[in-house]
Recover the amino acids of this structure.
């Protein structure tokens, strides 16, 4: 039913072994999915999914609209209940303690999670706090500015979220990933990141993901067509509307 | 502990900061409150004794009506832009984040009304020494109203006629608040013992404090599914 072709997997991970905390990440794969089935509104979208994502690998979910890419991503963030099967992130089972599991992942969903009535910095500060990034207020401001710089929206730091364009808001959502860029144990779940991005932002994002993976991080990314750049460490999972996996 | 406290403080600060930047909602609530409280005496005529008698009811109804539209919007905006989704996947328990949201809503929606209430009280000819006690009733009862409102807003999240449903859910649940609140202030006026009413209102607050945050969190989790 399912066929996944790993093209190339390992990258040198001596760097992240020094930096990544807890839970023996060297023993467990970043993401292990076992016989997973997810349904949505009564329709079975994904069935019999088995998968293992090692540190440094990217999983690219490819498929037509409505085939279940977003559903799978949201299910991995425990926002949607599983119909069958289980998964573990860094060896933490999905049935484990909520806080422990949530510390293993970061989700950038369809919605950008910019707090409409705040400016860019305040909104990201709220997000950092909810992601449990514990640093001093001064340090977090520096981290936020660095993240904005990485996504090329540093000049917009004081701007109101509601005054940003769709693409700028998307960049802001992706800047959230950079706040935790040194926590390479966190699995990035990114829903169709390339949709509203211009070429500049797309190439910035590719650089960010590539560098994250080079340091032992992993990501699950959904999208259409082919994944721009980063080909040599990507697993591609095609999902057809009838739930077939390839 | 810090992993719970800091995000909660951040949620409260973000809400306060946003409402300071866009005070429109707060001001419209406040103007409703003042409008109701000024129009009723105008319509009733200037019978001082009559006004003082209906003052407690008037003030409570004005608080309820002025806060209701804002309760309805408590989650709709952050649901639309995805902040709520991020709250759900935060390592901090959703229940605690909802408690923070309730505290923030009390500070933003109820506190301005409580602060405006003495002015209305004087207009209605309430004695000065009663005002402080009345503020206590309003503050505690207001917390009840916010907690009921939060549950209702979470339950109707995503429905198109959310305003109607919020009203339908909130009004019957807030009856006890109205009854004990009015009875308390009336007892205060007539010089009777009002401790009983205050205790009942306090008990109601405690029950809701245990009930409302988890119910709100669960309702939001369902709506985001």
């Amino acid at each position: 039913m399912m066929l996944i072709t790993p093209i190339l997997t390992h990258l040198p991970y001596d760097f992240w072994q020094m930096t990544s905390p807890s839970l023996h990440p060297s023993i467990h794969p970043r993401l292990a999915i076992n016989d997973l089935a997810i349904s949505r509104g009564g329709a079975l979208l994904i069935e019999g999914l088995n998968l293992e994502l090692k540190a440094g690998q990217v999983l690219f979910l490819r498929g037509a609209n409505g085939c279940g890419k977003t559903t799978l991503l949201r299910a991995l963030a425990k926002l949607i209940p599983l119909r069958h099967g289980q998964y573990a992130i860094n060896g933490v089972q999905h049935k484990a303690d909520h806080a422990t599991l949530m510390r293993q992942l970061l989700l950038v969903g369809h919605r950008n999670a910019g707090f409409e009535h705040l400016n860019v910095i305040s909104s990201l500060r709220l997000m950092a706090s909810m992601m449990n990034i514990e640093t001093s207020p001064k340090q977090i401001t520096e981290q936020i500015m660095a993240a904005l710089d990485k996504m090329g929206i540093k000049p917009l730091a004081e701007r109101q979220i509601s005054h940003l364009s769709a693409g700028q808001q998307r960049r802001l959502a992706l800047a959230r990933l950079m706040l935790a860029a040194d926590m390479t144990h966190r699995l990035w779940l990114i829903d169709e990141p390339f949709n509203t991005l211009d070429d500049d932002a797309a190439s910035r994002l590719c650089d960010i993901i590539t560098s994250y993976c080079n340091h032992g991080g992993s990501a699950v990314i959904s999208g259409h067509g082919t994944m721009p750049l980063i080909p040599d460490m990507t697993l591609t999972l095609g999902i057809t509307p009838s739930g077939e996996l390839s | 502990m810090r992993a719970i406290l800091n995000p909660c403080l951040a949620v409260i600060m973000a809400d306060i900061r946003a409402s300071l930047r866009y005070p429109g909602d707060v001001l419209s609530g406040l103007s409703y409150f003042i409008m109701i409280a000024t129009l009723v005496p105008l319509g009733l005529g200037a019978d001082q004794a009559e006004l003082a008698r209906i003052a407690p009811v008037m003030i409570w109804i004005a608080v309820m009506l002025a806060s209701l539209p804002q309760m309805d919007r408590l989650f709709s905006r952050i649901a639309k832009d995805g902040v709520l989704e991020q709250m759900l996947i935060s390592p901090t328990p959703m229940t605690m984040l909802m408690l923070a949201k309730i505290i923030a809503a009390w500070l933003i929606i109820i506190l301005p009304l409580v602060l405006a209430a003495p002015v209305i009280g004087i207009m209605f000819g309430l004695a000065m020494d009663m005002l402080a006690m009345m503020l206590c009733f309003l503050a505690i009862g207001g917390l009840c109203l916010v907690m009921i409102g939060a549950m209702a807003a979470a339950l109707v999240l995503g429905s198109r006629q959310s305003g109607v449903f919020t009203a339908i859910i909130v009004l019957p649940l807030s009856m006890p608040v109205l009854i004990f609140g009015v009875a308390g202030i009336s007892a205060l006026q007539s010089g009777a013992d009002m401790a009983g009413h205050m205790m009942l209102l306090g008990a109601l607050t405690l029950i809701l404090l245990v009930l409302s945050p988890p119910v709100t969190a669960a309702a939001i989790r369902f709506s985001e599914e």
Q: What stands out?
A: The CA atoms of residues 3 and 89 of chain B lie 14 Å apart. The interface with chain A takes residues 2-3, 6-7, 9-11, 13-14, 17-19, 21-22, 77-78, 80-83, 85-93, 97, 224-225 of chain B (CB under 8 Å). The mean pLDDT of chain B is 90.
